[in-house]
Write a structure and sequence with these properties.
- It is a single chain.
- By secondary structure, this protein is of the alpha+beta class.
- Helices cover 30% and strands 21% of the residues.
- The strands form 4 sheets. The protein has a 4-stranded antiparallel beta sheet. Strands 2-1-7 form a 3-stranded mixed beta sheet. A two-stranded antiparallel sheet has the order 3-4.
- A hairpin with a 4-residue loop joins strand 3 and strand 4.
- The chain starts with 5 loop residues before the first strand and ends in a 10-residue tail after the last helix.
Length: 315
């Protein structure tokens, strides 16, 4: 296996699990070189300094952030290490939510694109979108983008459709190259029960709107502190290696912390906008319940002829 691209730890409550990240995919596409059309020699891209009016070595370049027009501050690798976020060196589990493990396409996802139909094609576009939505289907297709053919999934997405390109099977690297060990583990019932308690306390609906890019904000703060000549403090990396821990004690403390956090959140005053949103969600839920009751009132003949709906898989 290639060299790890990231080292850190999974944070599961108060349990720390040191891990390394490796790319799970590799490109199998054909790459082209740029040639001079007259003599077919391979061209070179040089780094040019406009002040000295001459090429310079890449080793003589540094990262710079333009904080004002024409004004730059140099940002070093050491500065990036000082971004005050735990997620710089840890995978922080925020929430557990239901997953569709039988949907292989989820693990092959590469890139996503919105679709915008031409005016003359809007009716057919929306017809296809309606069929996919009502029958809970995904269209698997192939398309060439940027000189490469891609396998893709086409799904309804709000008022448009989303084309999600997928990795080809031979681009997915085998896990056999990972050092996962040969040990087998027999977990005690108490350990499983405590772990499930923690997961249950952290389980909820995934709402992307509740998350923001805190790294970007923290990096901006580090940069502006450097512009103003202030000192920044480096983030302490989690310890590597097989540090022995009392797993049960860590799980129990994590469960108590998660329960305490939920109780604190439930006591927070609710704003007018939040109350309105909760009211609307309640209306939607009650409407869905009515629909379910109506659906359950079908006759046996109706149920015999009706097409069974498949549960829609989500990424």
């Amino acid at each position: 296996m290639a060299r790890a691209m990231w080292k850190g730890a999974i944070q599961f409550g108060l349990v720390t699990i040191p891990v390394k990240l490796y790319l799970a995919t590799e490109s199998k596409g054909i790459s082209f070189n740029m040639l001079h059309k007259d003599d077919l020699s391979r061209i070179q891209m040089k780094v040019w300094c406009p002040v000295e009016d001459e090429p310079i070595s890449r080793s003589d370049t540094v990262k710079g952030f333009e904080y004002a027009p024409g004004e730059y501050v140099v940002v070093t690798d050491e500065d990036l290490e000082r971004v005050p976020l735990k997620t710089v060196r840890s995978i922080e589990i925020e929430l557990f939510t239901q997953a569709e493990r039988d949907d292989a396409a989820v693990r092959f996802v590469k890139s996503a694109y919105y679709l915008e139909p031409d005016k003359v094609g809007r009716k057919a576009f929306n017809l296809l979108k309606s069929v996919l939505l009502e029958d809970e289907l995904t269209a698997i297709c192939k398309v060439v983008i940027k000189d490469r053919e891609a396998l893709a999934a086409l799904d309804p997405f709000g008022d448009t459709m989303l084309l999600t390109t997928l990795h080809w099977p031979d681009e997915i690297r085998a896990t056999s190259e990972l050092d996962l060990g040969d040990e087998t583990y027999d977990f005690k019932p108490a350990e499983l029960a405590m772990a499930r308690q923690l997961v249950s306390a952290m389980t909820g609906e995934f709402d992307p709107a509740q998350y923001k890019d805190e790294y970007r904000e923290a990096l901006e703060a580090v940069i502006m502190a450097k512009v103003e000549g202030k000192e920044t403090v480096a983030v302490q990396a989690p310890e590597e290696g097989g540090k022995l821990i009392d797993l049960m004690a860590a799980l129990e403390a994590s469960v108590n912390a998660a329960k305490s956090a939920r109780e604190t959140d439930s006591k927070k005053p609710v704003s007018v906008s939040e109350a309105k949103e909760a009211k609307e969600r309640g209306k939607s839920a009650s409407g869905a319940a009515v629909s379910k009751k109506r659906a359950s009132a079908k006759t046996d003949d109706d149920e015999a002829t009706a097409k069974p709906a498949r549960k829609r898989k989500t990424a």
